[in-house]
Amino acid sequence: MSKKVAIIASNGGLFDAYKVYNIATAAAATDQEVAIFFTFEGLNLIHKEAHQQLPMPEGKEHFQEGFTKANVPAIPELVEMAKEMGVRFIGCQMTMDVMGLDKEAFVDGIEVGGAVTFLEFAKDADVTLTF
């Protein structure tokens, strides 16, 4: 039986994206089953346009040089890596409805579901994280 990692992504900034995708891909690389529930601003991390241009937090611009020197992949690359590694992406149906967004606004391969969909996965998760 594989271990499960359940992640809630409710914030939509660049650093949030790196946290979510770093943990998700690391867990998937160690043969753990991973699901990410994207809700509220966290939907930016899978939005077709927004995830490609997440802004660097104000006053943190100096990190960009470090990301480049360390060969840290850009967020769109991490999204693709996570998908290729089998990470489940679950977009929150309620939040999508509230924001007037449909599945086509997001990267290919996401599931759309409510809290119950995520809870079904998370109920026996070994690790649960929120970003």
Automatic annotation (TrEMBL):
Entries under InterPro entries matching the protein: DsrE2-like, DsrEFH-like
Domain of life: Bacteria
One of the Pfam families matching this protein, by short name: DrsE_2
Gene3D superfamilies cross-referenced by the UniProt entry: DsrEFH-like
Protein name according to UniProt: Peroxiredoxin family protein
Source organism of this protein record: [Bacillus] enclensis
